[in-house]
Amino acid sequence: MCHEFCICRAGYILNSNKTGCLKIASKLYDDCEIDDQCLTTIGCSKCGENNTCICAKGYHDVNYKCFSSIALGYRCDRNENCVTPLSECKKGICYCKEGYQRFRMQCSSSSNKMIISQLCSIFMSALIASKLYDDCEIDDQCLTTIGCSKCGENNTCICAKGYHDVNYKCFSSIALGYRCDRNENCVTPLSECKKGICYCKEGYQRFRMQCSSSSNKMIISQLCSIFMSALNLIKNDILIVFAY
C-alpha cells in the first residue's frame, strides 16, 4: 500500500538495499536472504548458508525454537538449555540425569574414579565470562553464560548482531511496528511493547521509525514536504524509494 510514502506490508521487511520487501520467517528452516527475516520473529537465529533460518552460534534447536546451549556445570533456566545428551537443568545448573555421571563434559555411566580425573582437568580450563563486558578471547567464553552474545573487537563480551544490552542482558532488537515479547525488545528510544507490538510510548508519535513529541500538525507538514519533494524528483525521471 502506498500513500505519502511506501512501506512493506505486514509480515514483510525491507531488503538490505531498501529497494524491495522480503517475507518475515515464521519458524526455523523457513527460507531467507538476510538475518533480519529470521531475527524479527525467531530469537537467537540467523539466515544460514543454505538460505534458511537456523539457530545462531551458541544456540540449538529444540522443537523449532532456539535455546542457548549450556554445558554441564553451568547456569541454566530450563531443561532445553542443557545441550549435553542425558543432561537436565536442576536448581539452575546443568547436571547429568539420575543414573548418569559426568565424564569429559559428557554424561555416562563411568566410575567415580574417572569423574574425579575429569574434575581435575576442569579446574585447568579457561575462565568463562560471567557478565557482559567481561574480558574474552573467543565467543564461547561469553556464550556459555550470556545469551545472544559474542566476543567483540575489544576482547570483551558484547551482545551479538540483532541484540542490544539492557541492564547487562542481551535482548533481541525489535523495531517499531514489529512483534515483541517484552519492553526490553523495543530498541527504539521512547518505545514499549504493547499487546505484543513495539509502539511509541504515550505522548509520543511515530515518525521515520522514531518516536517524537512533535505535534500532528508538524508531522503532517513534514510528510507533505517529503511528498512534494518526491514529485519534483519524479518529474526529473529520478526514482526515489522512501523507507519508513
From TrEMBL:
Top-level taxon of the source organism: Eukaryota
Q: Which Pfam families match?
A: EB (PF01683)
Q: Which residues form the EB domain?
A: 55-107, 159-211
This one is known as CSON011761 protein
The record lists the organism as Culicoides sonorensis (Biting midge)
UniProt lists the gene as CSON011761
